[in-house]
Amino acid sequence: MAPKYIFPDPAQADEEGLLAAGGDLSVETLLTAYSQGIFPWFDENSPILWWCPDPRMVLFPAKLKISDSLKQKIRSGKYDFRIDADFDAVIRNCAVVKRRDQDATWITNDMLDAYRTLHKEGYAHSFETYYDNELIGGLYGVSLGGTFFGESMFHRKPDASKISLYYLVMLLKYFNFDMIDAQQPTSHLKSMGAEEVSRAKFLEILSVSMKSPTRRGNWNTFTELLRYEENKKRDFGYE
């Protein structure tokens, strides 16, 4: 079945990366957009805006950089992590984080509903960090083919979101994913190995990545696998 909306060629985006306006946030529309390297970003006072910036920030799983201090925190046993255990709490926490110079969150009520639906349909996932059973950080994004499209992350204690990213990358390596789409450049992600690539290069990698099967469903079942692998690293001292 043909998609309800046909997006313009991503190469037609303007200098800021804006490609189109309008449409809806249905599962079908969002999956069509992501598969073409396009994502929504707007506020309550604007129509739905669709973006494909140039350059694009990506993180190749094999290039993740972990500082010694972060490694010590992960190996300390003081922090717990979970996958898809409380997606709603993660996206609600991310919604209070402001982006760029905006006066209000970019995660509108419509966006909240749309990604909750994507999660229920098995496409959106959350990685969560806990301390004393309290959620202190996390991230969420969309998985299609061999690419994880990172949407947002938050932390309430230092390095909590980095711990979540560490476990995301760990699982994506296990799945042989090609990349994490981080969308916009940030010093936070650059410090962990993310890099900018041209839009053309990003779309080239993405077109191949979309040929991989999508791992749809709740990923909570992989939590114990990662705990087992991390315990082996801690106990036997290998990376």
Commentary on this structure:
The chain is an alpha+beta fold and 239 residues long. 34% of the residues lie in helices and 23% in strands. The chain has helices at 27-35, 68-75, 87-94, 109-120, 160-175, 187-190, 199-209, 223-236, and strands spanning 18-21, 39-40, 49-51, 56-59, 79-83, 124-131, 134-144, 147-155, 179-183, 195-197. The strands form two sheets. A seven-stranded mixed sheet has the order 5-6-7-8-9-4-10, sandwiched between helices. A three-stranded antiparallel sheet has the order 1-3-2, covered by helices on one side. The N and C termini lie far apart (45 Å). Mean pLDDT is 92; it is low at 99-104.
Question: How do the strands and helices of this protein lay out in sequence?
Answer:
Layout: E1 18-21, H1 27-35, E2 39-40, E3 49-51, E4 56-59, H2 68-75, E5 79-83, H3 87-94, H4 109-120, E6 124-131, E7 134-144, E8 147-155, H5 160-175, E9 179-183, H6 187-190, E10 195-197, H7 199-209, H8 223-236
Parallel strand pairs: 8-9
Antiparallel strand pairs: 1-3, 2-3, 4-9, 4-10, 5-6, 6-7, 7-8
Helix pairs in contact: 3-4
